[in-house]
Amino acid sequence: MATRRVLVTGCSSGIGLAVAARLAKDELRRFKVVATMRDLGKRGPLEKAAGDSLNKTLEIKELDACCETSIKECINSLPNRRVDVLVNNAGVGMIGPLECQSIDAMKELFDTNFFGLVRLVKEVLPDMKQRQSGHIVVMSSVMGLQGLLFNDVYSASKFAVEGFCESLAVQAMKFNIKTTLVEPGPVVTEFERKMYESAEKMDLSGTDEETARIFRELYLPYSKEIFTSLSQTPEEVAEQTVNVITAKDPPLRHQTNKVYMPMTALKHADPTGQLPLHTFYKMIFKHDRVFSATLGVLRLLQRRAGKK
Ligand SMILES: NC(=O)c1ccc[n+]([C@@H]2O[C@H](COP(=O)([O-])OP(=O)(O)OC[C@H]3O[C@@H](n4cnc5c(N)ncnc54)[C@H](OP(=O)(O)O)[C@@H]3O)[C@@H](O)[C@H]2O)c1
């Protein structure tokens, strides 16, 4: 099988770093990895993770998903501009009451999470069409399938990603181009740290007392519990992403965390939307103790299984 060139965005940390390093260290040497980041000053952790593969099966290049010129320069620097697999991973998070978030901050988030993807796809798609081959792999989220309290804008950006890919996939298929949305649940990365750091500092004076209380006293502690109980490592997500890339017939969607499947299944079980709506409401506001206890049991089971 010929070596495939895989371009990954957002490789300074987390999932992007893990995907790039895992692909570069592939025992069968099936990939040439172009690991990109917007700030090359942050290349240290990736260089360390890449080890011997650095400058052999992995090269590091600058790419800012919010800048068309930067994307063009990066793609133009590749032999024949060839990208066989695009892993669009760069993304940012945002949590909190809507009233406390500025429209500018929301636009910035969409500029990275949604328009970043659109810019990248616009740049690689014409060449993929011409070659009649390619694979567009997009780091979405379970929040691209099911919205979550206080994640309104982030979730909306991932819904946009899902709608974009679902629409594009049909046209792409005509040109033998595959499309895959990878949908992780919580993953322990810088993403989580940055999100909680900004949440702790958030000025909640823009919202009413009850909303501020729900966010601080209910949502944040729960969300942290969920991260400790149900999260995956970036390496686990990377392993599954590689499986998707090497699959003979890659799926349009791949959820990485089985625990989240019932949550997304609720939506398909009831087209009126009432079932997931009432389930989430009860889980958060009525049966919070049961929910908390369930998370405790899951944590225990994971510890016993030697996972944590
Ligand atoms: N962690 C989770 O729980 C989770 C769950 C589901 C989905 N995801 C998705 O997974 C993806 C990766 O997130 P992560 O968890 O690995 O978070 P992370 O560790 O914070 O990594 C995000 C990466 O995106 C980069 N990035 C941000 N804006 C960029 C831009 N304009 N151009 C290029 N790169 C940019 C960051 O670079 P800098 O270092 O320069 O900021 C960083 O390399 C995101 O799309 C996220 O939405 C994460």
From TrEMBL:
Gene Ontology biological process terms, A to Z: estrogen biosynthetic process
InterPro entries registered for this protein in UniProt: 17beta_DH (IPR011348), NAD(P)-bd_dom_sf (IPR036291), Sc_DH/Rdtase_CS (IPR020904), SDR_fam (IPR002347)
Positions with a binding annotation for NADP(+): 10-38, 64, 158
CC per GO annotation: cytosol
GO molecular function: estradiol 17-beta-dehydrogenase [NAD(P)+] activity
Pfam families the UniProt entry points to: adh_short (PF00106)
Binding sites annotated in the UniProt record for substrate: S141
Gene3D superfamilies listed in its UniProt record: NAD(P)-binding Rossmann-like Domain (3.40.50.720)
Active site (catalytic residues): Y154
Keyword terms of this UniProt record: Lipid metabolism, Oxidoreductase
SUPFAM superfamilies for the chain: NAD(P)-binding Rossmann-fold domains
Sequence similarity: Belongs to the short-chain dehydrogenases/reductases (SDR) family.
PANTHER family assigned to the protein according to its UniProt record, in alphabetical order: RETINOL DEHYDROGENASE 8-LIKE ISOFORM X1, RETINOL DEHYDROGENASE-RELATED
Record protein name field: Zmp:0000001048
